[in-house]
Amino acid sequence: MRPITVNTLAQRKQAGEPIACLTAYDAAFAGLLDRCGVEVILVGDSLGMVVQGHATTLPVTLEDMVYHVANVARGSENALIMADIPFLGDVDPATALVQSGALLRAGAHMVKVECGAMEVPVVERLVAAGIPVCAHLGLTPQAVHRLGGHRVQGRDPKAAAELESLAAQLENAGAQALLLEGIPESLADVIVRSAGVPVIGIGASPRCDGQVLVLTDVIGLTPEPPRFARDFLVEGGSLEGAVRGYCDAVRARAFPESGVHTFS
Ligand code: KIV
Ligand code: NA
User: Fold this and answer.
1) Which superkingdom heads the taxonomic lineage of this protein's source (predicted)?
2) Is-above-0.95 flag for pTM?
3) Is 171 in contact with 196 (CB distance < 8 Å)?
């Protein structure tokens, strides 16, 4: 298998072949995901919850991110490694650039930025510096306190129109992928139809060009998993079976299921 690049992701979108993405935070799980053919390994700041036991992603530092990205990079060969810019790392374009540099030097191939309107110039600056960016919009967990919890976004017409416009602005700013989290399926479909770049979903829509879940939600390690997740270990019987089952379900568009793992 050849290494996955941003070109591979674009080709898969064009060919209508869904992209399988999961999170990992260490070499052992990165190796498992890589062997199973997961295209994108996300070193998410969800490590604040999964690895560190915090209630939110806010305590995660750049140093934490760099440590976990380096571990994942040593454990995987072919997957594209996407790394989150941590809370306030995107407070301005210059800071985001320095933080992205540290993540790429540690082995990431793409950074993910939680985006509102303020982040459009941040994405522009990173792209101008040659850094591939995935723009994360909708439910952005770093804004958990402003949002009043991990709540579905874009439910009223005004908020939906704003997200639709933001997605277009981020793509114009040069984002090479979008990630939609926690928005109504109908809104996700509108964004997917107009996007020219791959759109990865979580709690979004089966029609996204790819899907992502937090690894622990897929292998039965989360006590109260979110409703948009599915435990693949139950059917898969082993860690490898679970990861392969997830990839197969994503590629067959059998996961997520409309109305079961999505919001109306
Ligand atoms: O940190 C993370 O794992 C994420 C995904 C939930 C998209 O950002
Ligand atoms: Na994240």
Assistant:
1) Bacteria
2) yes
3) yes
